[in-house]
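Researcher: Here's a chain I'd like modeled. Treat it as a single chain, no partners, no ligands.
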Amino acid sequence: MRSNTLDITPTPRILRTLGEIPFQTWQCIAELIDNSIDAFLSDAALEGYDRRINVTWSSDSVGAANRTLEVSDNAAGMSIEQLQNAVRAGYTSNDPIGNLGLFGMGFNIATARLGEETIILSTRSGDPEWVGVKIDFQKLIDSKKFDAPI
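Model: Modeled as a single isolated chain. Structure tokens:
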């Protein structure tokens, strides 16, 4: 039986990195798009596949507290274990020698700077259901735990 939460405790690398990266809004969005691009590049089976990344956001007519930003792609998707690693601050599956990046911090910094709540969903071909996790920064702070609901 699967737990109803994921442990997203950061790795120790977060302590040194967090205070050094002042992202602008456009950089946060670019980081999320880059994650989609990385997903396409890491899967040779997607070669020649019609790759798509869609970015949508709320208009200025929506109140600031209710605005949303959505970045979606049609890459191969992630298992629950891959999803857990993807949202853990400091985790990266990229080779640090051959790849640029923020050492597993880009997603976390971007989403933390863009808003108080992040929902990430994924599915893979053949999976019976979508998997996802909701990261509510204020709830994590209040609970003093790094457990996010699946």
